[in-house]
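Entry for the shared binder. Reason: the reviewer on the internal report wants the predicted structure included alongside the sequence.
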Amino acid sequence: MRIIVQKFGGTSLAEPAVRLAAVKKVIEAIHRGFSPVMVVSAMGRSPQPYATDTLLSLLREIAQDVDVDPRERDLIMACGEIISTAVMAQLLKVMGIKAIALTGAQAGIVTTSEYGNARILRIDTDYIMHLLKEGYVPVVAGFQGAAEPVPPQVHGDITTLGRGGSDTTASALGAALNAERVEIYTDVDGVMTADPQIVSNAKVLPRLSYEEVSEMAHQGARVVHPRAIEIAMEYGVDVWVKNTRSDHPGSQITSYEELPFEEKERITAITNLGSIAYLHIGVQEEDKPYVEVEIYKMLGRLRVNAYLASMSNDRITFAVTRQNLWKVRRLLDSVVVPVLRDGKPRLYLFDTGSDRISFLIQREELSKLGDSAEVEVIPVEIMENTSLVSVIFSHPSLLQKVMVRMLSVLNEEDIPFIQIADSRLSASALLNESDTARAVRALHKEFGL
């Protein structure tokens, strides 16, 4: 049996015409000799009625100042995908295809119990394999699963997989079912050399390595989620990115070893991660390592990714996406980090300037310690209108040449940068957000993409 997993994102399900186009992709796969498993996201994006954010707003509107319980939040967030399964299964049936809608739990997806960011532990594939042998197309809700039941529960709680969860569902099903390939359908023809909304002549890359795509995703490209790519790479499943509305062959994501020789050392793409907030925290040099570790531990507990960690001796600097800034402000505002020096504690009290009442109360309470502790107030400086522009390449040996050319282009274009950084397959510059498009276009031209 030749199994194919086909995942359709929210924009591929938002309207009747594009839903019909998605069903035609499934039918085409059947005609090509495949047994398809369809994975679906919630239909459309906010404010469309069945988008995840729209459904979530139903809970938030009840009381803006009361946090939603994570268990109930996952319940309502899972509803959008479940609606999609029923709609798409019915559409397949109308087109003469045997189909059945499955929640993540019904599809055998067992996860950890971490609401909002659960990890897939295993997939029990017996039922899906039975359905495939009977000629059904299983239509599986992406982005979700169910945790193991905890007595006295009979059934485990519904959980969601976090950002990019439907991609993760598709990749994990592809691995568990030993699928021949996984196809990710979206609203572009494939993985491109730059954001086509910024670079009008951006091209589709016919083949990429898992590592290239993972790096692009980490640096802001809206392609396959990194977690999905990690699963595909671990199990050797080829992933294709295609357009629901066209017959373009798309982009194949495979192992580095499978790339042609000329693609093993190349400049791959220019990416941009917009809406970045850049934070500066000054501390005494001897305390910086300890305070920095404590801050990153706290960010980890919030599941907030930090970019551009500094190498300064007395300043902690890092960047977060603007959508996570409110979490970071809430975390750091009035938090106290203690450091023991010569038997006497030094207490670092952070001030983001966003909650003056909490800060003033905290400072007043700490002042009651008198000489028993040294209290140091640390302002947290925040630059909100920044963007990360990155050059992605296929082999680490290219880093030095890429960095030199990138900095030369920025200087020639008179584009100031705030900080530069590099990783194994990318060179990046933090810029003012207003310079992003100009920088992306200049770098795309410089590297002949």
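Summary line for the report: Residues 16-31 form the longest helix (16 residues).
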